[in-house]
Amino acid sequence: MSHAIRPGDVLAGRYHLVDLLDESGGGLFWRAYDSSLERSVAMHIIRADDERAELLREAARTSARVVDRRLLRVLDVDETSDRTAQDGTALCYVVNEWATGISLDILLADEGPLSPRRAAWLVGEVATTLEVAHAAGVAHGRLVPENVLIDRTGSVRVIGFAVDAALHGLPPGRISADVTDLAGLLYAALTARWAGVSQSLVKSAPHQHGRVLRPRQVRAGVPRVLDTLCDSVLNPYSAAPGSHARGSYDLTTAGGIADALREFVGDPAGLADAEVAAVRRREAGGTRTMPMVPFAPPGSTGDLPAQEADPLPDPLAEPLPDPDPLPEPVSRTEQPTEAGLPIFDDDGSVAWIAKRADTPPPPPPFEDLPERPLFAPDPADGSPARRPRTPVGPGHGGFWPWDTSTGTGTGMQVTTGSGYIEAVEEFDEDEGRPGRRWLWLAALVAVLALALLTIVFVFNLGSDLPKIVGNDDSKPAASRSPSTSASADAGATAYTGVAADDFDPQGDPPEENPETTPLAVDGDAATSWKTMTYSQQLGPGGLKTGVGLTLDLGTSGEVTEVDLTLVGAPTGVAVYVGETAPRGVKGLTPVATATADGTDVPLELDQPATGRYVTIWLTSLPAVDGGFRGEIAEVSVLGAAGE
Questions:
Q1: Would you identify the CATH topology of the domain 100-284?
Q2: How far is CA 51 from the centre of its chain?
Q3: What DSSP assignment string belongs to 378-443?
Q4: What tens digit of pLDDT does each residue of 370-392 get?
């Protein structure tokens, strides 16, 4: 029977077609109602003789092997002849679960780019599903924003797994394309631009010199971790060597991308709840009804069947009553108002802006200034023209800054030759002289600072006194251990001209404050070489197993003892001797080890060792503020230099 497939038709006696959602080359995607299960379902429908029909059936059977809560499961695969194409051909259909929500492409069109954490969580959910599917050898084949859905519960659902690719005539098993499209989903969520290999309705990402622009070049504020992830997957061959950040994740697999995104998101609690409100806002706007679409084979361009237009409403039998007359407009002279003028009364009147009828009186005239005499008048009664000023002495406060005599002024007023002026008010004895309190405070601070400097100087002088005056031959040296004295008696001498270099084979870069290494062999215990401050202690559980110095003796010779002056305790030390500078300590045998609880550490070798390079390897560091840090103030190597 020749007819068009339209809303309301029933397929296989149970599937009532409701809305046509998409069409691709004769393949239809419908929302239908399953009367047997009494719920909505999604249906992919195609002609049974279409070359894609077998691909569609095989894709449905393949996707059924993947079990994941984010997938819309395949419920039925079959052919039907009760509803056919216009030429009577049977129809092939695949039935999937139905989920109500908003797809990613519509979400981006409505809201624009998502926040980085929201985008990473959403794509991470899709990546977790792909990880399960790829482990079973099944690929989605067309992972585009249109096939990613956020449902009413805020969960991420993947639509058309393997089936949508078959409906578009794409070959199955494109796992590598899934990985690239997965990075394209993250790119789209961050920039609202599509950069995957599959075709999508989302606007394409910009390209430059044959490569996709990084997300940070399209939208500001994208975190570097997500920017590098997208660029590593979308531009695997065009990036310069070393431009991608090193990491422990394999970004060529969906599992590696899922792990990287999970680490970026952290705790995902609350993210799904935040999506529920966005879905409900769009559900309140209603559902768009799709028109009837005739079924035609791929490439057909026949005319669509005509549809009857809705009849026009009957004309009204009686005319409408006349509208009420509009109120008389207020005269511009009666109501002088403009938009935006303030209103001060409850009645809304703006009469205050009207021009005043009465004119205000003019201001009174200015009074003439009195004339001032050019010269002072002559004094009366033959008194002198100038009167001597009475000397004014210090007041009751005992302080008067202009006192030049021993007068005894009262402090109340001072007379002059032409009259008198009011003197300064009496000084309050309780307040003291102005500035005296601050002077006393400054003097006290200066005395305390001087005393503190004296204490520090005396302490340092006492600690350096043996270096200044030398050791008394009649008394044993306090800084020399018995083993050091024994080795010195045996003819061992300290090497001179020793050069020090930092030794950090496990660093990146392999440097450990190289600019301060000469301070460890300069003969001054007040200067030192320091390691960097580490948040964890050295050792198997730390960032490094050790760090230290390499000493170049200048020539190969016998080493019998190494004396260290350390800062802080405790410090783990190991000593290595060799003919060449080591690249690491793995496989080397230390000639001496110790855990120093003090600052002076003499390390006497059990057996003399021969070599040019002496390595001081710190295996544990003293605790300091903010972590752990080692410090070597002085190193002295004793032995017999070679000829």
A1: Transferase(Phosphotransferase); domain 1 (1.10.510)
A2: 51
A3: PPSTT--SSPPPPP----TTS--TT--S-----SSEEEETTEEEEPPPPPPTTT-STTHHHHHHHH
A4: 777 776 666 666 666 666 665 55
Q: What tokens appear for 615 in the block?
A: 């390595």
pLDDT digits (tens, 9 = 90+) for 65-109: 898 999 988 889 888 876 655 566 788 999 999 988 889 999 999
Strand, helix or coil at 371?
Answer: coil
Residue matched to tokens 């000639």: 591
Q: What are the distances in angstroms from CA 468 to CA 455, 460, 465, 475?
A: 19, 12, 5, 16
Omega of the bond leading into 570 within 30 degrees of 0 (cis): yes
Ramachandran region, residue 286 (left: φ > 0; alpha: ψ -120 to 50; beta: rest): left
- Which residues, including other chains, have CB under 8 Å from residue 397's CB and lie 6 or more apart? 426, 427, 428, 429, 433
CATH code for residues 1-98: 3.30.200.20
Check if the beta carbon of residue 636 is closer than 8 Å to that of residue 549: no
Domain at 483-641, CATH homologous superfamily: Galactose-binding domain-like (2.60.120.260)
Backbone region of residue 8 per phi and psi (left: phi > 0; alpha: psi in -120 to 50; beta: other values): left
**Is there a contact between 479 and 601 (Cβ–Cβ < 8 Å)?**
no
Q: What are the structural domain ranges in the chain? A: 1-98, 100-284, 483-641
**CA gap 2, 84 in Å, rounded:** 7
CA distances 194 to 83, 124, 144, 220, 228, Å, are 38, 17, 8, 17, 17
Between the two ends of the chain, the Cα-to-Cα distance in Å is 112
